[in-house]
Every structure is written in C-alpha cells, then in structure tokens.
Design goal:
With 625 residues, the protein is an alpha/beta fold. It has 24 helices and 16 strands. The chain has helices spanning 2-14, 16-24, 28-50, 52-55, 60-82, 86-128, 142-188, 198-215, 230-236, 238-255, 281-299, 328-344, 355-376, 413-423, 426-446, 460-464, 468-479, 492-497, 499-512, 528-532, 543-546, 553-568, 581-589, 606-619; strands spanning 218-226, 261-266, 269-277, 303-305, 308-310, 314-321, 350-352, 380-388, 394-405, 409-411, 453-457, 486-491, 515-521, 538-541, 572-575, 594-595. The strands form 3 sheets. Strands 8, 9, 10, 11, 12, 13, 14, 15 and 16 form a 9-stranded mixed sheet that branches. Strands 2-3-1-6-7 form a 5-stranded mixed sheet, with helices on both faces. A two-stranded antiparallel sheet has the order 4-5.
C-alpha cells in the first residue's frame, strides 16, 4: 500500500510545483501543457497500480526510479519548450534539484535498504526450505548490515543445532538397535551362563532335523543332568549353585567343537547337539560316546568355590537321529529316557536310547496315569504285619499300603512306590495311609480291644515337607488316636542326609507324643554319637543282616553290635524279616525280643488282624508296644 501511494503522489510532488510556477508567471499555455503531462503521468501510475500483480517481480523500487526519471524528463521538456527565463527558470531548476534529491533518496533506499532486505528475504526462504548453507552478503545501511550479520549467526546456529540433532538421532538409533539386540539375546540365551536357552535350542534342533533329512546326515543329542546338585543349593546357598552352573557351562563348551551347540535347558539340565557327524551310524555313535565321556570326566572334577571344594557328577543320555522324520519333543524325550537310565545305572555314566527304553517309558506313563486315577478313586487299602514280643503276642503292627488296581489286581509297594516318589504322588498317598491307619487303630480300641501301636513308613520326601508335624497333629485330632500309639519309621539315610533339620523335625514329633523308629538300621553306618542327638525310641535291624544271622559270622557280629547299641541307648530293638526259627532263637539269645516277619504270618487285612487281636485279648494280657 505504501508503494502505491508513493507512485501516485510522486508526480504531484515533482510536476505540481512546476505547473504552479508557470501559473504564477502567467504562462497559461505552458501551465496547461504541464498539467496535461501531470495527468498523463498519473495515468501511467494508475495503469501500474492496476497491473501491479504482473509487475511484482520487477520491484517497486525500480518502478519509482523509472517514473521519477520520466517526470524529470517531462519537466526539462516543458521548461525548454516554454523558454523559461528568470525566476521561472530558477523554479524549474529548483524542482530539478528536488527531483535529483528524490532520485538520490530512491537510489539510497533501493540499494541501501530494499536490495539487502530482498537478499534477507531470499535467505530466509532458502533457510525455510532446509538449505542449511543459506547465508546473506553483508552491505547496505548499518542496521541492515547488522540484521544480515544476525541472520547469518542465526543460520549458523540453526545449522549447528540441526547437526547436533542429527548426531543425537544417529546415537539414539544406535542405542535402540543395541537395546533391541540385547533384548533379542536375552530372549534366546540363559542370563546366568550365557548359553542358548530352551527356546533357541529347540529352534536349532528343528533346523538340524530338517537338514539331517535333506542331507541324510547323523546328528547327536546329549542331555546332561547334574547328580546331587540340589544339596549344593540347600547346604551352601543358591549363589554357590549358580557358580557351579557357570563352571559347568564353561567346561561343556570346552568339550565340544565350534559347530556343536551347548544350551542350558533349565535348572541343572544341559543339552549338547552334535552336528556334522558321519553318515555311518556306528561312527556317529562312537563320536557321540567319546564326547559324552569327555563331558563326564570334565564334570567329575571338583568345583572350587570361596576356597572350598565341591563335587558333583553328571548323568548323560544320548540319542542319534538322521534321515527319519523326528520331532523336537520326540528327540528330547528319547535323550531324557536315556539320561534317567544312566541315573538308574548308578549315575556318573552315559546311556544310549534304544527301543526298550521307549517301551518302558510308555509303561511308566500308563502306570503313572493309573496311579493318579487310583489316588483319586481311593483304590488303595492297608495291610498290617504283626510285630510280636518274646512270648509271641502281637504288640504292634506295621501298616503296609496296597494298590487294588482294577485290571492288575493287588499291586505291591515295590511296583508303584518308586514311581510315586519320582512324581511326588507319595505325599498324598502317605497322608492317606496316615489318616486311614490312625482311624482304623482308633476303631479297634472303640471295639474294646487292647490298644496296640501302629507303625507307618515315612519317605524322605514326606519327611522333608514343610508342616509335617502340623499335619500329623491335625490327623490325630480328627481321628482321636492316642499319639503314643503312633510310630513313624524313617530310614537311617533320610535322617543323616540333613542331621540338623532332621533333629528339629523329630523334636516336633516328640512334642506331639509320637514315637520314631529308625528303619533299616545298619545300612547307613550311623555312629553311636550320631544317634544320641535324635529323639528316637526304636531301632529296626535291617532284614539283610537278619537273613544269614544264624550262618554268617559277620552278620551275627553286626546284629549283636546293633542290639548292644540299642540297649546302651535304652532303645527298643526290633528285627525285621524274621522267617526262620533259627533266626528268632539267635535274636532272643542275644537280647532282641521283638520281631516281625513271615515267621509270624504275612501282611494281613484289617479283618484278619482283628480276629487275632480278639483271640489274643481273650487268652492272655496284652502288652502294647
């Protein structure tokens, strides 16, 4: 708008005074001519204003300068044509000087202000388009020169800032990529040992099986389980256990080749996959066996932790696979079966999978399912084996569980108790035995029979469970059995495994009034001093010593020692597995007056026992155990 006003007013400033001078000099014709040119000049300017949009690129300054030159030319033309002299000519000259001043001012504005301003505008546009190298040449009036310098500083600062932001973006992208890789590594590797975890190992196994089928190659799979690792955690803490696992990982990696894979599969289980084996099965088996034996030897070395030496062996199961269709789960199951076969063979050894193991595993799975059904459907029953005194009277019984299988009939404990212990089912089965035995023993006294003690076997798993004493107290309250009639039989090895904890549990049972007997005594080589720290009331001589006591001098000496030890500790001594009168005679001759075994009858159902107890009660006084 300012430019438009300047264009329209400029001819009035330049030509108007000239025309007034002519009028003042009574030169009417020249004045009229000047006014005509004034009208023409204003007409040109109006035409410019109307075409302003088309002349924008030419620039307002250039238009003003051009029109000012035109106006000056008009003035000179009119003045010369009018023949002005004297004062009138002086006026024209003054007007021409005025026009020259205006031209100078316009030039100053144009080159000192408008041109630098246009350069600043162009630089700003370039900067807005992202051209970080946009700069403005300095020159012009001081304020605009300072403005140009400030613009350049701003552009430089923006360039520096953008470079810094770009560098930060690159650094952030690097950190994101690094973090992503760390998360990917954590998702596929064990954080303790750094080995591939179950997920990554399964993926590599799947790839290996596919490649083995395509190339008809043999691949070996070894499943390694540490023997006796749990006691390290229990006795020395998880920190020691973790350090052992890290050492195991290092030793395993030293036993294999670069192409092989070592993974921690969970807990104290590790898996090794051997690739690029010979396509000959025997050669591949020999290679796998060699590596397995190296692993056994490496893991059999002591572990030094905090200045102390720890020892733990391992059991290794091996399976080979090649061109046949095999799933990952099937291969791992085969290796697992072979590994458990190695444990059953005494541990610290290696076993290969064969079809017999699969058949045994299938039978075991069926038996486990049946065992769970039997527990749920209460297919168990109790038999009782009599314990007699020197006079032959029944003073107590040992409760023995039997499984009334719907298809197999009566299943003895030796056939299902080991499986129950492996699966943890021994705990609910043992609780059922305790509750049932206490309830039946209480029912015998309610029938008027003399009270007799009932002994119940307690497995290591049951003995180690938390809250054992509380559970026993609850059963005694619910059944109403006198605690002094209940006795738990615990093996010597179970008690000595963790003597301090065992002593605490036994004291809790003693506070309830429950008796404790050490079962299979003599097999664990307990010392007299070790026995004194436990609140026990009975020693049961293992039947393996009783069997040949009448013919083997060593067994006879051992049995006499146990009897003497029991007497010195004021403990009751009972001999198990008495089957012959010669055995009974030897025992009584050396001071053992309580015994149980087939000599006094097989284990019997409760009804048969009741008949014996009833007949015994009517014939002579009864002495409870």
């Amino acid at each position: 708008m300012g430019t438009i006003i300047a264009i329209l007013v400029l001819p009035l400033v330049l030509i108007g005074p000239t025309a007034m001078g002519l009028v003042w000099g009574t030169r009417w014709a020249q004045a009229a001519e000047m006014l005509r040119w004034l009208a023409l000049s204003i007409g040109f300017r109006l035409a410019y204003v109307m075409a302003k949009a088309h002349l924008e690129a030419f620039g307002a300054f250039h238009v003003i300068l051009l029109l000012s030159i035109l106006d000056t030319a008009l003035i000179l033309t009119v003045a010369i044509g009018a023949g002005l002299t004297g004062g009138a000519l002086t006026v024209v000259q003054a007007l021409m000087c005025e026009s020259a001043v205006i031209l100078a001012v316009a030039a100053t504005i144009g080159y000192g202000i408008l041109s630098p301003a246009r350069k600043l505008l162009e630089g700003t546009r370039r900067l807005a388009r992202g051209q970080r190298d946009a700069r403005v040449a300095r020159g012009g009036v001081r304020e605009l020169d300072e403005l140009a310098a400030a613009f350049n500083d701003m552009a430089q600062a923006l360039d520096t800032t953008q470079q810094a932001l770009h560098a930060q973006q690159l650094a952030l992208e690097d950190r994101v990529a690094e973090r992503t890789e760390q998360l990917r590594h954590l998702a596929n590797h064990d954080p303790l040992t750094g080995l591939p975890n179950r997920r990554l190992m399964n993926d590599r196994l799947a790839q290996a099986t596919a490649q083995a089928r395509r190339n008809q190659e043999m691949v070996g799979l070894l499943l390694i389980d540490l023997d006796n690792f749990k006691p390290i955690n229990d006795e020395h803490g998880h920190r020691a256990g973790d350090e052992v696992l890290r050492i195991v990982a290092l030793r395993l990696k030293e036993c294999v080749r670069e192409v092989d894979t070592v993974a921690r599969y969970g807990g104290d289980e590790f898996v090794v996959m051997l690739e690029e084996l010979s396509d000959d099965r025997d050669a591949a088996a020999n290679h796998a066996k060699s590596i397995g034996e190296n692993i056994l030897s490496a893991l059999d070395q002591p572990y030094q932790l905090a200045g102390r030496h720890y020892h733990s062996t391992s059991s290794v199961g091996v399976t080979l696979f090649g061109g046949r269709e095999n799933t990952v789960d099937e291969l791992l199951k085969r290796a697992d079966l072979a590994m458990y076969q190695a444990k059953a063979a005494g541990r610290n050894t290696l076993r290969f999978f064969d079809l017999k193991l699969r058949a045994a595993a299938t039978a075991r799975a069926v038996l486990e399912a049946d065992l769970r059904d039997g527990l749920r459907e209460e297919q168990f029953t109790l038999y009782y084996q009599a314990q007699v005194d020197g006079a032959g009277a029944v003073t107590g019984v040992e409760a023995l569980v039997r499984w009334q299988h719907p298809d197999l009939g009566i299943v003895l404990p030796a056939q299902f108790v080991p499986l129950a212990q492996e699966t943890g089912l021994i705990t609910p089965i043992g609780e059922w035995v305790l509750r049932t035995a206490c309830a039946e023993a209480r029912s015998w006294t309610l029938r008027g029979l003399p009270p007799i003690g009932v002994a119940i076997n307690l497995s290591a798993l049951e003995f180690a469970r938390d809250g054992l004493a509380a559970m026993v107290a609850q059963v005694l309250r619910e059944t109403g059995l006198d605690p002094c009639l209940l006795e738990f039989e615990i093996t010597e090895s179970t008690i000595m495994h963790n003597a301090d904890r065992a002593a605490d549990i036994l004291r809790q049972l003693e506070q309830l009034g429950v008796r404790v007997a050490i079962d299979d005594f003599g097999t664990g080589y307990s010392s007299l001093s070790a026995l004194q720290q436990f609140p026990i009331g009975t020693l049961k001589i293992d039947q393996s010593f009783v069997r040949d006591v009448a013919v083997d001098a060593n067994d006879a000496a051992l049995v006499r020692t146990i009897i003497d030890m029991g007497k010195s500790l004021d403990l009751e001594v009972i001999a198990e597995g008495v089957e012959a009168s010669e055995q009974l005679e030897f025992l009584r001759r050396h001071g053992c007056y309580f015994a149980q075994g087939r000599l006094f009858g097989d284990a019997m159902e409760a009804e048969t026992l009741l008949a014996i107890l009833a007949g015994q009660a009517g014939g002579r006084p009864h002495h409870a155990a």
